[in-house]
Amino acid sequence: MTTTTAGSTPPATTHLAATARGLTRTYGRGDAAVHALRGVDLDLPASRFTAIMGPSGSGKSTLMHCLAGLDQPSAGTVTVAGRPLHGLDDDQLTLFRREHLGFVFQAFNLLPMLTAGQNVLLPLELAGRRVDRDRYERLTATLGLADRLGHRPGELSGGQQQRVAIARALITNPAVVFADEPTGNLDSEASAEVLGLLRTSVRELGQTVVMVTHELAAAAYADDVVVLADGAVRAHLVDPTADTLVATLRGDR
After folding, report:
1. Per-residue DSSP letters for 174-221?
2. Phi, psi of 222, deg, nearest 5
3. What is the DSSP string of 132-168?
4. How far apart are CA 79 and CA 86, in angstroms?
């Protein structure tokens, strides 16, 4: 286990999926201002599974939204897949997200009138891109969906629906998959299954996954854990043990 200080680059990093420098996000003004992020410096390595943790109000979801181009920072810069996001207008950000990012949310966000297979392929259809059948078949097989592709979401369990959502996020071969509390609506067995699949996408498919979670059990699946407190990075842990993670979350380190 290695602990790095706020803003430092984890050891053995050869390629970064995303970086933030001086990232600040303030909502409101004057006495009503809420400082969600306070000058965050962060390097996220490619082809690794990073969990972002912290207590409620620590800024973890705001950080993910700024990294993913879903929210505009008040100050600072974000670079994802080598592309600086500052200066991009809404249309350019939408196009960038469609071409380079994948998303998995707590709500599965599947279209109920489409089959599982059609939901997986939807990002390609919207982008007018050709379907790579080999990738589609490998993804759906790896995620255990091969015999469920003709079913509609209402015919699938929660865990199966989240598998479809993961396959949909991966089908475009994105530079980064952002997952926001992806197991929040699942029981413990389905949660473990989904987290294992996200880890498999990193190990076997070379995917980069950045996940916001408040659950220690979920963070245990990650290679790296970024711990936030009061809008700042308290620690960036590389391959942490459970004891180290618990101590960091308690503020012992």
Report:
1. -SEEEEESTTTTS-HHHHHHHHHHHHHHHHHH---EEEE-S-HHHHTT
2. -85, 155
3. -HHHHHHHHHHTT-TTTTTS-GGGS-HHHHHHHHHHH
4. 8
Cβ atoms of 175 and 100 within 8 Å: the answer is yes
The predicted-structure confidence for 232-246, as pLDDT tens digits, reads as follows: 999 999 988 888 888
pTM of the model: 0.88
Q: Is 5 in a helix, a strand, or coil? A: coil
Q: From 3.40.50.1260, 3.40.190.10, 3.40.50.300, 2.60.40.10, which CATH number describes the 48-65+87-250 domain?
A: 3.40.50.300
**CA–CA separation, 244 and 229 (whole Å):** 16
- Strand, coil or helix: 66: helix
232-238 sheet: strands from edge to edge:
2-4, 232-238, 224-229, 49-53, 209-212, 176-180, 101-105
Q: Hey, what amino acid is at 123? A: P
145-180 pLDDT per residue, tens: 999 999 999 999 999 999 999 999 999 989 999 999
The tokens 């989904």 sit on which residue?
194
Residue entry with tokens 């699942």 = 186
Closest CA to 102 of 69, 132, 135, 77: 69
Task: Give the three-class secondary structure for 118.
Answer: helix
State the pLDDT at residue 205: 84
Higher-pLDDT residue of 87, 149: 149
